[in-house]
Design goal:
- The chain contains 4 helices and 10 strands.
- By secondary structure, it is α/β, with parallel strands linked by helices.
- The protein folds into 2 domains: 104 residues, no CATH class; 59 residues, 2-Layer Sandwich (Nucleotidyltransferase, domain 5), CATH 3.30.420.
- The strands form 2 sheets. Strands 1, 2, 3, 4, 5 and 6 form a 6-stranded mixed sheet that branches. Strands 9-8-7-10 form a 4-stranded mixed sheet, with no helix packed on it.
- A hairpin with a 2-residue loop joins strand 2 and strand 3.
- The longest helix has 17 residues.
- It starts with a helix and ends with a helix.
Length: 193
């Protein structure tokens, strides 16, 4: 009997473990406040040498704004399929509100508050874009690639103004699936500027 009680207490303690999400950080706020929301958590886990994702979508109410609290250490290869599933779930829900939005959460290091980046209209794809288009790729090493050219993110504005002025106005921005979610948010905010 004593072994059963000790084993039961052990399982109880293991099931009550605290989980944390390390949010991405940036020095600006895109949206400061979101009302009527449901939080969704993407937890970072490791097993041996593998990085795993655990998604808590229990709070996802289709008629509300969704806040995606995604751990900054997770690679896009794990995050994007889960985001696509959730976007599809919300779009096909009969309770969906036409005014509800999806937001990534991050920490504004300047104001020391939570901030939000809307992405409702964004559709993710895991495919190579058409080579006839102007495709700029952000990689996991903080470099930017355009065809055979490689340069730093800081040189992108000059490159766009000088090298691509004769290219059609449509430019496709791609992100390496190895990129961490934290770097992805920083790159998205960089492009917003």
């Amino acid at each position: 009997m004593k072994k059963i009680v000790i084993t039961g207490i052990g399982f109880l303690l293991l099931s009550c473990q605290n989980k944390e999400v390390l949010l991405p950080m940036a020095g600006e706020t895109v949206v400061a406040d979101v009302q009527d929301h449901s939080p969704i958590y993407f937890f970072y886990k490791t097993e041996e040498k593998d990085t795993l994702i655990e998604v808590n979508r229990k709070n996802s109410i289709s008629s509300t704004n969704w806040l995606f609290n995604i751990d900054k250490r997770l690679p896009l290869r794990l995050v994007i399929p889960e985001i696509k599933k959730l976007q599809n779930k919300k779009e096909t829900s009969m309770h969906k509100s036409e005014t509800s939005e999806n937001y990534f959460t991050y920490t504004d290091t300047t104001k020391k508050t939570m901030a939000f980046l809307p992405f409702t209209q964004l559709r993710y794809k895991f495919e190579k874009p058409d080579n006839n288009l102007a495709v700029i790729t952000f990689d996991e090493n903080n470099l930017v690639r355009y065809k055979d050219e490689v340069f730093s993110k800081e040189q992108l504005t000059v490159f766009l103004n000088d090298s691509l002025k004769d290219v059609p106005k449509t430019i496709i921005f791609c992100f390496s699936k190895k990129l961490s979610f934290g770097k992805y948010i920083q790159d998205k905010l960089f492009l917003k500027k």
